[in-house]
Structures are given as C-alpha cells and as structure tokens.
Amino acid sequence: MTVSVMVVDDHPMWREGVARDLQERGFEVVATAGDAPSAVRIAKAVRPNVVLMDLNLGELSGVDATAMITSELPETRVLVLSASGEHDDVLQAVKAGASGYLVKSASSEELVEAVSRTAAGDAVFTAGLAGLVLGEYRRMAAAPDDSEEKPQLTDRETEVLRLVAKGLTARQIANRLVISHRTVENHVQSTLRKLQLHNRVELARYAIEHGLDAEPEAEK
C-alpha cells in the first residue's frame, strides 16, 4: 500500500525538494505546509499516514503542531526532520507524540527508510538519539507506583514487547524468535489490547518505562 506523506517545513525550497524526493521514491505526498497552524489544519483534512515535521516553524513550533496532530489524528504518525539535534528538542518532540526524530544531515536513503518504518509503526531515531530517549523514560520511571495493578503478559508477549522496544520490525522479531510473522502480529495485537495501547510506538514507550527493553541476563 502506498504511504501518504505530508511535508512541513518553513523553507519552501527544502520543503519542495524533500517532497519531490519522496514522490520519486514511490511515496504519495498529499500535502505540504510552511507553518504550524496550516500543518494542523491541512493534516486534519488529508489525514496522511506520516507527517514529516520540522521544528522551527515560527510562533507556533513543530512541537506544538505535533502535539495537536497526534492528539486529533491518532492514526497519523509524526516523524520530526530537524536541523537541531539538541537533547531538549528531541525529548520535547517525543513527549508531544512524535514517533521518531531524524536530523537533516541524514541521507536520502535514511530518510526513505525512516518514513517507511514510521508508517509501519516503528519508532525511528537518528543514531545516538534513541539512547537519549530511552534514558529519559527510564528516569521518569525510576519511582514506579507499585500500587498500580499491572496487566499480566505471557512470557512470549513480554519477549516480543522487549524486541519491539529495541526497534526491531515484526519480520526481524519473527526471524529472531523463529516464529511466523503472523504469530508476531498476533502477540503484538494481544499485548496492545491487554495494555490498552494503540500502536507499536506506545508499546515501545510502555516497555521502556517498565524496564523491559534491556536484554535478559541469559542473552547477554
């Protein structure tokens, strides 16, 4: 299925260039926008699979637009493409609901792969930034509420969840666990229902918050 993409950037030449590159790679660029209010308004109208979002958009930032889009369009995923690799910018974008974060120095091949993986539900980050996000969620989860009753997952569901948090695709998980792709998807859907989550990005966040992203001792 063709992935529909909306490109948001305040520089017209960059915006048009990225849109053209994505179209040439087989993506359907359904819209572009140059500021946050337009991005939110247009996204609600065209409902793209992925919004490629810059952060520096003027009075309202890309973080603001990301928060509004992910709140109103839960099926639309936001991938930040920014010149900034500052830790605060990355964390603010993820907390606003971004599924991933790529810096503009990324190659065309990296961008194409990132958009495809984001559309598939993966959390995608420029090398070095994933560890930052993992560390932040671990810090936030340092004092968990033990009084909260946690959903019971099977050993296999926990194993799949851990690999989702590590950024593996469903096919990679199937190969690693020597099970079928359909079985992996069944475990993912079962876990989503038990945890009352909506997609793999939320699953990854849950796993990170509960310390499930680390390798078990037997596998180290």
UniProtKB/TrEMBL annotation:
PROSITE patterns cross-referenced by the UniProt entry: HTH_LUXR_1 (PS00622), HTH_LUXR_2 (PS50043), RESPONSE_REGULATORY (PS50110)
Mention any Pfam family matching this sequence. Answer: GerE
Q: Does the keyword Phosphoprotein apply?
A: yes
Listed A to Z, the keywords are:
DNA-binding, Phosphoprotein
The protein's matches in CDD domains, at most eight in alphabetical order, are given as: LuxR_C_like, REC_NarL-like
Outline the extent of the Response regulatory domain: 4-119
Q: Where is the HTH luxR-type domain?
A: 146-211
UniProt xrefs under SUPFAM superfamilies: C-terminal effector domain of the bipartite response regulators, CheY-like
The source's superkingdom equals Bacteria
Q: Which residues carry this modification: 4-aspartylphosphate?
A: D54
Q: What is this protein called?
A: Response regulator transcription factor
Q: What is the species of this protein? A: Lentzea kristufekii
